[in-house]
Write a structure and sequence with these properties.
Helices cover 44% and strands 20% of the residues. The protein is of the alpha+beta class. It has a six-stranded mixed β-sheet with strand order 3-4-5-2-1-6. The protein starts with a helix and ends with a helix.
Length: 203
């Protein structure tokens, strides 16, 4: 293994610890790990892929969180499903760690909403009396989309969980289920999430 590849592996391992122990998102965790390892300004070429970080996250969870993580994941997925039902008119798809199976109680829930009118979701939240913050993230076409942040109660954890709603155009739904390099989907709709929950509930 060359030095560059070895350093990329180091970043992936360090980033995975940040994801699990601090609830960081992958992109921020990779950048922080890169800085901590003393190679800030070295460019994006040495950063590991999200799949590589996810492999390290799964290994970390198996070693350090095997007793707690499955229950915490189930709680977050069931909470996500409630919000998907609440926002059903916007064709919600669960993404992120809760969909991929690596979430812990520190993880945020990520829902992608596919709207005919991108302001309609905000109007719906206002009508529901929900407070939210507005940020942004990149969209599938390289632009930016609104990212709404809500703190939602989670009675099982005794605290709030962060819910992110990415407001996407309805046309983006066509590419939403494109798999990763290993054939696994990056997101799923409510029906797919129900199937996952049913599979996990089997003895």
């Amino acid at each position: 293994m060359g030095m560059a590849a070895a350093f990329t592996d180091e970043i992936a391992t360090a980033a995975a610890r940040l994801v699990v122990d601090e609830g960081m998102e992958y992109a921020a965790a990779k950048r922080k790990a890169q800085r901590a390892l003393g190679r800030h300004g070295s460019g994006r070429g040495e950063l590991p892929s999200n799949e590589q970080v996810e492999d390290e996250v799964r290994e970390h969870l198996a070693i350090f969180c095997a007793e707690t993580q499955p229950h915490e994941l189930d709680v977050l997925r069931r909470l996500a499903l409630k919000w998907m039902q609440r926002l059903a008119e916007f064709r919600p798809h669960l993404a992120g760690a809760a969909w991929r199976g690596t979430a812990t109680r520190l993880s945020a829930i990520h829902l992608d909403l596919y709207c005919d009118d991108t302001k309609s979701a905000e109007i719906a939240l206002i009508n529901l009396g929900l407070a939210y913050d507005v940020g942004s993230r990149s969209d599938p076409r390289g632009g930016e989309v609104d990212l709404l942040r809500i703190a939602v109660p989670c009675p099982e954890f005794g605290e709030t969980v962060t819910l992110f709603l990415a407001i996407l155009d309805h046309d983006d739904l066509r590419g939403a289920l494109k798999p990763d390099s290993r054939g696994r989907s990056w997101r799923g709709d409510a029906a797919a999430l129900r199937r996952l929950l049913a599979e996990e509930a089997r003895p």
